[in-house]
Amino acid sequence: MVDATLSRAGGLSPHRFLKFSGLSWFLVAVIGQWLFAYYVIAAYAPETLSGDWARWDETGLIQGFTQADVIGNLAFISHTLLTFIICVGGTMQLMPPIRNRFPALHRWTGRTYLLIGAFMAIGGIWMIWGRETRLTDLGGWGTTINGLMALVTIAVAFWFARKRDIDRHRRWAMRTFILLSGVWFTRIGYMGWAILTGGAGMGRSLDGPFDMFIAFGSYLVPLAILELYFWASQYRSSAAKLGMSAVMFAAAGFTALGTFGAWNMMWSPHI
Fold first, then answer.
1. Neighbours of 267 (CB within 10 A)
2. For 15-26, how does the pLDDT look when each residue is reduced to its tens digit (9 = 90+)?
3. Interior CA angle at 168 toward 164 and 170, to 5°?
4. Fewest CB atoms less than 10 Å from the CB: which of 27, 38, 190, 225?
5. Which residues have C-beta within 8 Å of that of residue 101, sequence separation ≥ 6?
């Protein structure tokens, strides 16, 4: 009945509408991730190349430059600048025109993306506990679990790619994309919530109720939405597809709001 109604109205079928809602979120995410990538390069590359590493801390870091800590400083800046590849490379890997028209490029950039992703996951965990780069232990555990989950999805995505099981590889690659975007999700999550609620539940030391939620929710909520999207794509119910489409459009709207807030309050002031 819903299919017929949409067809007579000249609209999309529930399945195609769901796909369109997913594409809408992805396009918003591409803009947000590329803005974050631009910020990372513009804010940190000039100071790094000039040797003025102490200026890293002007962006309000928990722990950036530390005198006489050469290994820690190199770990921090490599982790930070490689974010550019994670943001740009990750979104490009999920673009069907690139994947379909340039399969060799997709394979090699995919391997690079997974390798760098594993390096950043391990490096991030080391910086949290080895370099004490955290404000709260709960926040540290949230990021640690995010990194460990990313290592698992990276391995599984690579395994299915080697087995030429493209459908399963694609799903695990999308899970990897979500998990490797945890830092980005945290930032847009904070800004979107701050705009909507005026900062309810946020503590100055990141110890408020929302801070505790976002430590894990920054990647678990997007991951749950992705899994529901997979489920709705295969489920025959038109109502389920339309309901999930509404969720995806809401996610796109929140992502756009969070990106707007992050750009104006977190990123552009430091460029």
1. 21
2. 999 999 999 999
3. 90
4. 27
5. none
| 3-class secondary-structure state, position 192 | helix
Question: Which residue type does 155 have?
Answer: A
Residue entry with tokens 């590849």:
85
Whether pLDDT at 43 is above 60:
yes
227: its two tokens: 């899994």
CA-to-CA distance for 16 and 232, rounded, in angstroms?
A: 12
Question: Angle at the Cα of 226 (from 257 to 139), degrees rounded to 5?
Answer: 65
Structure confidence at residue 57 as a pLDDT band (50, 70, 90): confident
Q: Name the H helices within the chain.
A: 2-8, 14-50, 70-81, 83-93, 96-101, 103-130, 137-162, 166-180, 182-197, 209-234, 238-262
User: What is the chain's alpha carbon radius of gyration, rounded to the nearest angstrom?
Assistant: 20
Report CA-CA distances (Å) from 99 to 61, 89, 96, 253. 36, 12, 5, 27
